[in-house]
Write a structure and sequence with these properties.
The complex is a heterodimer of chains A (316) and B (381). With 316 residues, chain A is mainly α. Helix content of chain A is 76%, strand content 3%. The longest helix of chain B is centred in the first third of the chain and has 28 residues, at 73-100. Chains A and B meet through α5, α8, α10 and α12 of A and α1, α7, α12 and α14 of B.
Chain lengths: 316, 381
């Protein structure tokens, strides 16, 4: 653990420049600063929704699911089709979640279960799956850009906010989704029996099995939930961003960075990591467009250099 | 939970230990019973050659040396030379993964850094290139890419095992986005066109035959270098660290230093491959360092098998042949489906790749029947 002085120094070193920048940006153009802040937080909640599934699966099964981005894209496409057919966005959300969860369940039961404990092989299988899923999706939906419409009650801007004047209602609702998912996960993990099993499995799988719990079932449920969250994020992202081959890699990279920075297997870490990534990316784009990726990269390097297991990570 | 399930769950760790690649097995030499040169006064190196060479070595050497004289320029350049280059890049990965136990997806990124260095420092169709002479550019490109590889290694060995693959993937994708978005140095989406090898000794090195021999020379250099390296004390220590880092650490070996050094060595191989690759393509764009190709390098290494350096070249040959000729059979757009399917099948059914498949077939149908209960060393005459 860090001593008090070290902690103070870290806060000063990291927070100082940020505070200076904030004061300058607020004085210079308060509207741009605040809009960027909202943009980054809403982007962060999308990242959190997708990455929390990733980190949940990793925490329990030590399985890096590199097909997570493909599940995100799958959810988005399924949601798009369902919304087009039924006209209900809420049904599309559920369909995206279910489609990705089902795909995740199939992957876990048919393939990953056969090679439990072989981390590297499992990861390679998910790489192969991501190639195959991405290509099948490209086959069905072609390389066309799909943009989903926000539901009517979320369309248009909210007006009358001080300083910002108007802000997209849908983007603001993302923040709500992120918080709701976060609270749901907290409730699930800390207040239910399944959550207790998952947390116990994260700490010691063998002991949990010895205690009489059907570990395979817990694995399957967790994998479903994690994959479903990716699909859920896919439907949300289909409105916010757009659906096109290549988005899967982008969201996979985002999930990777979020969990590396935040600490793997920790939902709180995923929230912190998502916030950091969202802020860095959006402020980078707004204030230094060509170097926004470099910011993200520098953050990754700094965190890895000083906390190899991420901000909330624990030694395995 | 049933007893069988419980046993399976408890055996998970054991199975994982058994699935890890074993230390390099000695080369499978044929049954060399009598050495006719043992008592003659031939030089030592000739005796060594006689003892280690077998018919297949001569066959392979003849094949790769004679190929450009019988094959069409298309085969020589597009298939053979490309396979050698990707084999070299995949070799750097299979050295790291097979002997060091670190699966790094960033090897293509290292190659891409070398390629971009050649394009930026040397001459190309883009104005921003500095236009330095080739004998300055090449060492610089090698040094820059190797330094980057060392840095990547230093970052990713701080964590281990499964984390490596994530961190190197993140680094690789970040590099892709960097070159895509940066126009001042890397010329963004367009990248650099017309990056050609220099005219040296009056030979146009981009002609199929000279380029093939250039690629062959470096591929063989890399192959024999790795074969030699894994038998040196450093290589042995690296394999020890792969199998049990904690024990090696208590024996006094620096785990971190060995791993970072392995990244540096692999970085040199990858940068040579990257320089050849940019000359082969004649251009470098963000697409050349994107996720697709990063994963393809892993596919090549896994396809061939990571337990022996030759696997990388075998995998590359199969991959490039599939890529070139599968499109005649199926739709070009569906190539990824084929290669993804092949990769999945290999990972699912033969984790040691084609080499593992070959070894399995040999043990089943080959002349050395070791399936019988008697140990092979007490074979009846």
């Amino acid at each position: 653990m860090m001593s008090k002085g070290q902690r103070l120094a870290t806060w000063l070193l990291v927070g100082g420049p940020i505070a200076v920048f904030s004061v300058w940006a607020l004085a210079d153009n308060p509207r741009l600063y605040l809009v960027t802040l909202l943009n980054s937080l809403t982007l962060a909640s999308l990242y959190f929704i997708v990455a929390s599934g990733f980190t949940l699966v990793f925490g329990l099964m030590r399985n890096v699911n590199l097909a997570h981005g493909s599940l995100y894209l799958l959810g988005g496409y399924v949601g798009y089709v369902v919304a087009r057919e039924t006209g209900w966005w809420i049904i599309a959300l559920a369909a995206g979640f279910l489609a990705a969860a089902l795909a995740g369940l199939l992957i876990q039961v048919l393939i990953l279960r056969r090679m439990q404990g072989e981390d590297l092989r499992q990861t390679m299988v998910t790489i192969g799956l991501s190639i195959v899923i991405a290509d099948i999706l490209l086959w069905i939906f072609t390389g066309q850009v799909y943009q989903m419409e926000a539901p009517e009650w979320l369309q248009g801007p909210i007006r009358g906010i001080p300083l910002i004047k108007a802000y997209s209602a849908y983007r603001l609702s993302l923040l709500g989704f992120g918080i709701a998912i976060g609270l749901f996960l907290w409730w699930l993990l800390n207040r239910t029996r399944v959550g207790t099993m998952i947390r116990a499995g994260v700490d010691d799988r063998a002991m949990l099995a010895a205690a009489g719990v059907n570990v395979n079932l817990v694995f399957a449920v967790t994998f479903m939930l994690g994959a479903g969250l990716a699909g859920f994020g896919g439907v949300i992202g289909a409105v916010e961003l757009s659906m096109v081959p290549g988005e899967d890699t982008r969201l996979l990279l985002a999930s990777l960075i979020v969990v590396i920075v935040g600490g793997m297997g920790s939902v709180v870490g995923a929230a912190i990591g998502a916030a950091i990534l969202g802020l860095a990316e959006t402020y980078g784009l707004a204030y230094a467009p060509t170097y926004s990726v470099v910011f993200t990269f520098v953050i990754l390097i700094v965190v890895l250099a000083f906390r190899p297991r991420g901000i909330m990570g624990r030694p395995a | 939970m049933s007893a069988a399930q419980w046993r399976r769950a408890m055996n998970g760790g054991l199975a994982a230990a058994a699935a890890r690649p074993r230390p390099a097995s000695p080369p499978v030499a044929g049954p060399v019973a009598e050495d006719p040169y043992a008592h003659s006064d031939a030089p030592t190196w000739l005796k060594y050659l006689w003892r280690t060479l077998s018919a297949r070595h001569v066959f392979i050497a003849g094949l790769v040396l004679l190929l450009p004289f019988v094959a069409t320029p298309f085969l020589t350049f597009q298939v053979a030379a490309q396979a050698l280059i990707f084999g070299l890049i995949a070799l750097s990965l299979s050295f790291l993964a097979g002997y060091g136990g670190m699966v790094s997806l960033a090897q293509l990124t290292v190659a891409g850094i070398a390629g971009y260095a050649v394009a930026v420092l040397g001459s190309s169709g883009t104005e921003t290139s500095l236009g330095w002479p080739w004998w300055v550019v090449l060492p610089f490109a090698l040094i820059i890419a190797t330094l980057c590889a060392t840095l990547i290694g230093w970052l990713s060995v701080r964590t281990d095992g499964i984390y490596t693959i994530m961190i190197t993937l993140a680094i690789g994708v970040a590099f892709y986005y960097l070159v895509l978005q940066n126009y001042t140095v890397f010329n963004g989406f367009q990248g650099f066109q017309k990056v050609y090898p220099p005219l040296v000794l009056g030979i146009n090195w981009r002609d199929p035959m000279p380029f093939y021999f250039l690629a062959l020379f470096w591929a063989m250099a890399g192959y024999f270098f790795i074969k030699w390296l894994v038998r040196t004390p450093f290589g042995i220590a690296l394999q020890g660290i792969r199998d049990n880092p904690r024990r090696m650490n208590s024996l006094g070996f620096s785990v971190i230093a060995h791993r970072v050094a392995a990244y540096a060595v692999a970085g040199v191989l990858a940068s040579v491959g990257g320089i050849l690759l940019v000359w082969y393509n004649g251009l470098i764009t963000p697409g050349s360092v994107g996720t697709g190709w990063m994963i393809n390098v892993l596919v090549i290494a896994v396809l061939g098998g990571m337990k022996h350096p030759i696997g990388a070249f075998l995998g590359a040959a199969v991959f490039i042949l599939l890529q070139t000729f599968a499109i005649d059979v199926i739709d070009r757009e569906r190539f990824n489906l084929v290669i993804g399917g092949v990769f999945l099948a290999i990972v699912l059914f033969s984790p040691d790749g084609l080499l593992g498949l070959w070894a399995k077939l040999r043990s089943r149908f080959g002349p050395n029947q070791v399936l019988t209960s008697s140990p092979p060393n007490r074979r009846q005459p």
